[in-house]
Every structure is written in C-alpha cells, then in structure tokens.
Amino acid sequence: MKGMLSLQEIMQRTHFEKAEVIAGKKGINRLVKWVHVVEITVIEKLLNGQELILSTGVSFGDNPAAFHSFVQQLINSHAAGLCIEKGRYTSTIPEEIIALADEHHFPLILFHEEVSFVEITQDIHSVLINQQYQKISELEMYAQSLNKKLLTISHEEEILSYLHEHIGAQIIYEKENQDVYFIPSVPIHKRKELVSALSKIDNDEDLHLKQPIQVLDKQYGVIHLYSKDRPLSEFDLLMLDRTVTALAQHLLRGLYVEEKRRLEESEWLRSWLDGGQSLESIREFLSRHDSIFVKNGVVLLCKKNGPDVPSLDKTYLTLLFRSIFEQQGFSVFFTEMKNTLTVILLNHRDAGKWKERVKEGISNLISKQCDKNGRTFLRLSIGKYVHGLEQMSKSYWTAWEAMKIQEQLLNGVYSSFFEDLHIYRLISYMQKQQDLREFVMEYLEPVIVHDQKHNGKLLETLKVYLSCNGSKKETANQLFIVRQTLYHRIQKLESLLGEDFMHAEKRLVIEFMIMVYEYLNSTNDYFEDSTKTTLNL
Questions:
Q1: pTM of the model
Q2: Are residues 409 and 447 in the same domain?
Q3: Is the dihedral of CA 212, 215, 216, 218 positive or negative?
Q4: Which of 128, 156, 185, 191 is the most buried (most CB within 10 A)?
C-alpha cells in the first residue's frame, strides 16, 4: 500500500531478524503509518491509529494490571502493533496479555535481544517518508495528466475510466438525472445488489468512499469508490478528489458552451419583451425548452452597481443565475439590452410563493457577487409579475421603471421589486400625465428659496419632522441638533408654510410634495434654475 508498510513487510527488515510475533499473528498484515517509542502507561488519547509502538516495558513490566491496561489502550486506539524488548524490564509476557492480543488480532512482537529503537525508527520512517513523497509525486502527475485529457475528453465516463486504471476499485457514478454508470461495467443483475451494498457500508471508509460533484453550488452527481479486496486509503481519497475536480471542470465547460448557445437566442427574446411575438410563437419556443406548460413569470434586470465595479463575466453570471433560480422553481432565459442583463423567470411552482423564492434567489446571488467588505457588485430590479406570457413586455418595462427609481432615489438599495415602490410609482405616473414642478413649488418654494439664500436646512428638517410624526425629541435626535435649534426651525417653517402645515390634509400634501421634489430633482436641474430666477427677481 502506497504511503504505508505492513507489519509483515517490517518483519523482513534487518532490525527485526531476531524478533518474534508471539501473539496476534492474524493481524500481521496490518498497515503502519508511523513508529512511536512509548514508555508511559496513559497513551490512548495520544494516538491517531496505525502506529507501531516500541517499548522496553519500563513503566509496566513488573505490573501485570498496568501491562494489560497499556495493551488495551493500544487496541482501543487502533494501533498497528506493539514491539517489546525482552530484558531488564520485561523478562516474560504474561499469558493474559498474549490471550488479549490474540483475541483482538493485535500483533505482539518480542525482541529477544537488545535493539536500537533510534535505528528502527529512522529505518522505517525513511521508508514511509520516501513512499509519501512518491505518493505526492504520483498524485501530481495524475492531476496534470488528467488536466491534459480534459482537452479531448467528451464524456465523464472517460475521466472515471482513467481513475479506475490507477486505483483498480469499482467506481459507481450516480448522476443528477438518476442515471447510474458502473466502471468497470457490471452485469445488470448485479447492479442493484452492488448499490444496495453501498448503502449498508456507507460509514465504512475502508471499503467505501464517496464524493459529490459540485458546480456553482449545484450538485450534479456523486462518485462512489468500492473495494472488497483491499482497504481504501487516503491516497485513494486524494485521487478521487482530483478526479471530482476534473469532472466539475468538464461539466462547467459544457455548461459554459451551452450558455453561450443560449445567449445567441437573445434576439428572439428581445422581440418577445418588446411585444413582437404571438402567443403561438412563444409556446413554440418554450416547447423546445421543456417549459410548454408555464403560464406566468416575471422579468429581472441586472447591471453593474456603479462605474468602479469590475466588469462582469456575463456567461459566468448567467450560469450562476440559472443554477440558483432553477433550484427555486423557475425556467431561466437571458438577453442583454442597454448594457443590462435581462433575465426572464418563468414560474413552475405555486404563483403565491413566487416573490419569496425570488428574494431567496437574489440573496444567494448577492452573497456570491460582493467584495470583501460585503458591497455587492450588482444592481437588481424586478418587474410586475404577469399572468400570461404575452404580457411579459409589461413586466419588462416595469422592471426598467423600478431600476430607474432605485438608481435615482433609493440610496443604498441594490434590489427592488416594482410592486413595492408604491408612492414612487404614483409619482412616476403623475409626472407622465402632467408637469408636477409648478405644483411642487406652490407648496415648497418658500422653504427651498430660504435654504438656498441662507444655506439652511429647513427642507431636511421638515422632511424628518414629518417622518417622526411631529415628535420634537425624535426629530432632534435624528438631525443631531439641540431641542432649542429645532424649535427655532419649526417657527421658521410655520412662518413660511403657515401655522397649519401640520394639519392632517395639508401635512399629507406637503409630505407627498417633498417626495415628488426629490424624484424630479434627481432627474434635472429645474429647481436650481427656477429658484435662482426667483431670487434674481
């Protein structure tokens, strides 16, 4: 076994020429990872297993109970065996110790002459270290060779066959779609028997190893190694790990190629979002993508969160979107418009839970697309959820409306649903119907002019005072000013807006006008120009 020696092999070495296995002979093929010299009686918690122990017996030779406890601890710790030097401290081995070792097939080796423990440990450790180095070299060569093969391999079975050539164990590949591959091939009537055997020995790492194949946080299958002829080693596990990594790269490459093909469909999708496709055409398109029974959906827009954000790898991003949102029950289609990734999410599950599932998907997505300070690289907006595929253009344009509002007014917000932007949607609609600027100035012009003339903060104070429902203490705390300063500002507001500005109806209109002012002021310089004109008059 690579990286370890068996006790049988060690017994053939020079220093063991005059050694005798006096008990536990059935365990002579046990593997040795390391050699320790031990002269204390409490040892169980200090061992990791498969150590060969050397001892003179100085701590237990004349105490049968301590001797028995010492051997029992070694057995419990899964040590490979015990070598005792016959001499001053241990002249004979009690029969009860021999019986204990035989019962557990624990090799007990007796040196009939004095030996050098230093030379023994140097000898065996040099062999083990050389084998370990050889194992690492072989593993590196295997990984390099496997990476080269990835350039020409067309199916996962070829990768697994290459693994089988190196370790010889039975390989079982369970794919996500329920397909199961056996390498080497197993007769059909024995396949169920073998799979059943795996479930029974699932926790026995000596016979069975398994590892899932993960690509972008999605599991695409599980690889099993099974060996009934020899115990599986750490080397086998490392070989399996390298192979699973290569399989994940192979699958990712395939997904990448497929994603690029899908992006080529974007022209048709743009036409759909512009309302240029009939329901029959949409159905025909979806039938080619196993989504023919879908009737509802929503559009999500994704773009960079600012000019200083690194460029996004669109193909990788679409793979990530697909991996996340397919698990949330959506079919996912992409196109790119106006430097923005447009994502069509078609719902396969309960329409009543669509929003919760989209929120969960967005949370997962943002957690993978942020810098070390937690700042997200993405800005996302979600349009109106529509019942009818021919209405997808409505979801698309409302997603753009949500993106516009988010960028202009919602500082620090990088994900917004159109249906949650209640008052901003109303303002946007009203602005499209008529010019709201004069209406805003009718209520707020005295405050705006005063702030510009005196570099004041009356408008900010008014906004906070209204949001605090007229609580002077809370307003002062939020503005970080003393109560007397707030009283002075409120008096000034009363003189400019009227003493009744906190009466219900007038207060409601003023609060709404502040939001309209902020909305309009974020899109043009009208107020700055108009108030300058007023002052000049």
A1: 0.47
A2: no
A3: negative
A4: 156
